[in-house]
Amino acid sequence: MNIAIMGYGVVGSGVAEVLKKNHDHIVQKSMQPSLELTRILDLRDFPGDENEKLFTKDFNDILNDETIGIVVETMGGLHPAYDFVLACLQAGKSVVTSNKELVAEKGYELLKVAEENNLNFLFEASVGGGIPIIRPISQCLAANEIDEIAGILNGTTNFILTKMIHEGMSFDDALKLAQQLGYAERNPAADVEGMDTCRKICILASLCFGNHVYPNEVYTEGITKLTLADVKYAQAWGGVIKLIGRATRYGDGKISAMVTPAFIQAHSQLAGVDDVFNAILVRGDAIGDVVFYGRGAGKLPTASAVVADVIDCAKHTQRRKNFGWENCIPNYVVSYRDIKCPFFVRVVSCDPAKAWAAAEKHFGEIKRLTYDGAPQDEIGFITPMMTQREFDEKAAVSGLTIGSMIRVTDY
Amino acid sequence: MNIAIMGYGVVGSGVAEVLKKNHDHIVQKSMQPSLELTRILDLRDFPGDENEKLFTKDFNDILNDETIGIVVETMGGLHPAYDFVLACLQAGKSVVTSNKELVAEKGYELLKVAEENNLNFLFEASVGGGIPIIRPISQCLAANEIDEIAGILNGTTNFILTKMIHEGMSFDDALKLAQQLGYAERNPAADVEGMDTCRKICILASLCFGNHVYPNEVYTEGITKLTLADVKYAQAWGGVIKLIGRATRYGDGKISAMVTPAFIQAHSQLAGVDDVFNAILVRGDAIGDVVFYGRGAGKLPTASAVVADVIDCAKHTQRRKNFGWENCIPNYVVSYRDIKCPFFVRVVSCDPAKAWAAAEKHFGEIKRLTYDGAPQDEIGFITPMMTQREFDEKAAVSGLTIGSMIRVTDY
């Protein structure tokens, strides 16, 4: 059986490398007599590349090649990736992708086409890079009703937060460093504004709860507004700030799903996840909390997840996996404004005595926080559990000038 | 398709409970029209139990029932579990087990029989309770050459060590507390002497490296000799002591495998694993380090792993998984005495000045450790990398009285 790769960027070239390096081991695991990379689609030229002979700029060279049974899509972006993947599935080729945007926007549709054609459409690498998470959720945790899934899903933002937390760097300086090290792109918006995390939590929520969740249904807040003061208040509270994507079973067949910075307790397995590492917590009714940790990005980790899917496709040429991922339904995702949690609040430009009095009057039993060197005209506290709707009402009448408002988790 | 359970103890009754509680969800995932528990084998009586009608004391009632396609073995121990499982596989029934002793001693043989009969023999729950680990290793990490696997695999000992580390309890007091809480058995030997961890690392090593590793090939040291002084020296070094089962690719087609207490760095993902939780670190050539964390024991977590395997058997009635688990080969496991690492050494009943001189003379460039309140007649230090063979030679000629010797890891 032959393989084609569409998109020879970081991940695509990593897939070629892993297929070559562990070739014999992979063929043996695949239970196929052979498993060879025979075509690579990319519009760019790669003179001198060891795979030079395999390149084509014409998608039809892959589509019409009947010896190619598995196509790896590592182009990224929605178009033409979607069109090419759809055509491959309709032409009887299984597809493996690392493209989270594709899966978050078109997952249900492509799984359906794969099912109709008795093929596989696999996407382990689309979330958590090389961390096994898609297959454990769909298989190992199959006996559980999953109640919640939450994770640190973006390495770039986690690197920036780690520098803010452990080295007291400002957001801007940490972002610059991440760009110098190649962890952040020149236009870092998709990472720091939370969009990348949003796509990943959509994929996880769709898998865990059974109906497609689209990115535009998920409230998404990035880390650009976080200050060092927030980081210090989190430490005073006994934890750290992380950018968390999470989805929760809400009841009545509904779920919540959002991406926001959040306070995480220091003893949580998510708190110690530093630098570009990712971790994903799954809370099941039978298993309790399970955490998966590892490199969430990078050439070889992500490539290894893609190749594991390729092996799976080779072993099961005629079979579809049943991910239990159904079509979206109306009003499935509850508004983030109706989800209850405690909130951390940093009040700025205030007379502390008056601000404490107003905070206690309007928010009820608050937990005061303080740290050495806090500005004289600021206070910080944690509210009782409430919805954001309630919070906004209380904040409006309190007269307080709120500099930061960050959700507090129970993990 | 019908299911039988052999052994209605903690895990077996948990399996019945999960099968009932999440019945519809499980049947749907299994892609079978029905999936019903129809028989339970146990020699004991359970008057008033909700499954009372299903009990039998006669194994033949399961063996000869052609409607039963999947048998769950949760009896524990080697006999008669082995004999029953073998008979079931030979009679055309897939088997799911949580019995680590059975898999560690008979894994290769039973997988072979399952293969010959085109059936499944699955054992996700035998390691790490409900934590997905067997399937991720055999599938998700299939594109990797695995270089090392290491884990905190026994909740009882980890609970005891947690109490010693965080509350300064002695080993004996912590063991008593564990027994009171039901975490340790009245005869705790299998846990505290490391045998339980040994069986689990045998299963993981067999899976990761491809040839069966038997418990009697694995050097196994428990935690009964650990003192609070050792715990404090570990803190002074910058880490904690954990009971670690680990296996490493050694080269020349050989591996190392052992179970010992070990110093773990504080920033390691294994260091923060407290109480009865387990965690398993897998180091692959492409993926780097991946860690799986969760409840390593307990009724429902373990039962949920068993039921996930049951679902898998129901989905794949005619298919065996290829675990790549081959027969043992001679001299496969290198002697623990030939494996290099740094060692922590606690010298007792000594004149410190003379002891430091002797330590430096014989062990070379050592790292001195000290903590507030250490006895006046003790010293503690870390040696350079060496084999235990070398260590023993140096220790013999040094004339030092060695109270503790504990391996130091690099994770």
Explain this structure.
2 copies of one chain form a homodimer. By secondary structure, chain A is of the alpha/beta class. Chain A folds into 3 domains: 144 residues, NAD(P)-binding Rossmann-like Domain (Rossmann fold), CATH 3.40.50; 161 residues, 2-Layer Sandwich (Dihydrodipicolinate Reductase, domain 2); 70 residues, Alpha-Beta Plaits (2-Layer Sandwich), CATH 3.30.70. Helices cover 36% and strands 24% of the residues of chain A. Chain A contains 14 helices and 18 strands. In chain A, the strands form 3 sheets. In chain A, strands 7, 8, 9, 10, 11, 12, 14, 15, 16 and 18 form a 10-stranded mixed beta sheet that branches. Chain A has a 6-stranded parallel beta sheet with strand order 3-2-1-4-5-6, with helices on both faces. A two-stranded antiparallel sheet of chain A has the order 13-17. In chain A, α2 runs parallel beside α12. The first copy, chain A, is elongated. The two termini of chain A are 46 Å apart. The mean pLDDT of chain A is 95. Chains A and B meet through α1, α2, α6, β12 and α12 of A and α1, α2, α6, β12 and α12 of B.
Features:
411 residues, alpha/beta, Rossmann fold, Dihydrodipicolinate Reductase, domain 2, Alpha-Beta Plaits, 10-stranded mixed beta sheet, 6-stranded parallel beta sheet, elongated
